[in-house]
Amino acid sequence: MSKTASRERRARNVRAQDKREQDAFVGRPFEGLQSETEWVAMREVVPAATATVRLTDSVGEQLAGVEVTLATVLPLTWPGLVTPDGRRMLAMQSPARSGDLSRDLAQALELALTAPPNHRVVLSGLPGRGRRLQDLIEAEPLKVRSHPNFDFWLNTVEPADEEVTGGMKRANSVMEPTVRVQPDLSAYWCQTGGKAQLRWVLPWQEDAALQALSRVYAQDQLTLGTDSRYIGAYRAHGLLIPVWDLPGEPTAADWEPVVGRVAEALTTAEANDEPLTAPERRARDGLRLRQMTLR
């Protein structure tokens, strides 16, 4: 076999391997992590937020217990970086590159762990087989801190970078105000396109969540009150994110009591293992038509 033919064969094998890894889609990449709904919210709902996680001893004794800062977005859409003072940061909303988002994020984190201070992570190609976030992060609740803007970028690079500062100003100018409604729920009030919405990451697998929504909808208990409207749900990383249009006047805190009431109804409905009634099946069929998949 000629050298050219050999190189072409190796290239085909690499492309085939890449395709197999790309096709190995993981529908629920954050399953097994504490506060799964908060991981999904950082990925899909909250525009500007940070949270802190700790590394397991699987990364080595020197790094065991070291804190890493998760951020929804980092300057110039970098997937990860090391700040001038040595803090590691990982961007949750980086584009997916393979079929396993947890592996994608884990690779960016691993590169940040070996990078020097004041350095950004650069990714190329598919991540290949390796550890996932579940292997690198301690199993602890995730406490997400929402920010009113992206000013937290300012201390991530040194010296002050005009490109970063300009990107921060542009991001701030288009950011949708987003506020948590209840401390124990991944439910967020946001202002989008001149109207208010509630976006709520439910803690159950998609089918179980849809069934709970169907039971509550059939009982006319899915409403959040006068002038609110349930408009559908996003399918995101194995969970559902139902969305309501809201009247613009009340603030996020004003919605806490009614969201708590709906949460109780959904929890009761999810625990009901009886077959759906005919009205509930009709409600399920209608709600399913109002779903959209996020990838």
From TrEMBL:
Pfam families found in the cross-reference section: DUF5926 (PF19348)
Disordered: annotated span: 1-23
Domain DUF5926: 29-295
Domain of life: Bacteria
InterPro entries from the UniProt entry: DUF5926
Protein name (database record): DUF5926 family protein
The species this protein was found in: Fodinicola feengrottensis
